[in-house]
Amino acid sequence: MQREGGEMPNYPLAFSVENSKKVAEAIAKNGGVATFSQIQATSDVKGSVLNHHLNRLQRLKIVEKEVKGTYRLTYKTPLCFIFPTKTRIPIAYFGLLGKREARKEPEPEIAIELLKKEKLKPDLIYVTTSPEALNEWKDLKLPYQWILCYEEEIIDIESVKQKIKPQLISLLKEYIVIMDCTSATKPATIAYYELAQTYYAPLIYIYEEIKKMKWLISRNTIIKQLNI
Length: 228
What we know:
- There is one protein chain.
- The two termini are 16 Å apart.
- The protein is α/β, with parallel strands linked by helices.
- Helix content is 44%, strand content 18%.
- Helix 2 (18-29) packs across helix 3, helix 2 crosses helix 4 (47-59) and helix 9 (157-174) packs across helix 10 (186-198).
- The strands form two sheets. The protein has a six-stranded mixed β-sheet. Strands 1-3-2 form a three-stranded antiparallel β-sheet.
């Protein structure tokens, strides 16, 4: 699959070499930021060989050098999602909100409750909607961070992608981002799906009537995509 932009991490190429995979996994397991000695201890890749693979991972945009001897993942999603970490990584929910119509409960609330049941309670909630849809839900005073797309934007795939992409990229760097493509318009759903594919982000869909969650892009999906 063609990934957007030359600055995207090339995970499949990086993980085609076992020691590079071990090094990236070691940084993820240490919470996405680790010193040279921590990486060495966790990965069992040592000395000049470790230096070589850290340099390789930097060229492939998987890893960035912070200060001398400290390295961080360019994006904590997906690696801190698929590898068990020593410390808890904060979770960001990134969803959609459509018009109210006959609904009593906003779909993101259902999604958040279902995520909590899987021990994935979001620390931060971002929801994309239109001003018109937001107005229909205003009596609930929903405590979300809003990304507003005007009516002509939320019916256009590329407009939605361009509107949400800066905030999404910012969150991917520091959070495990779980995207939800259930609500709003079909173009918005497609935009979310395409961005989740591009950035290897976990993606859910909610069957609102029966309050059931389906992982469209799960841990196992990402592991297969990354050739791990």
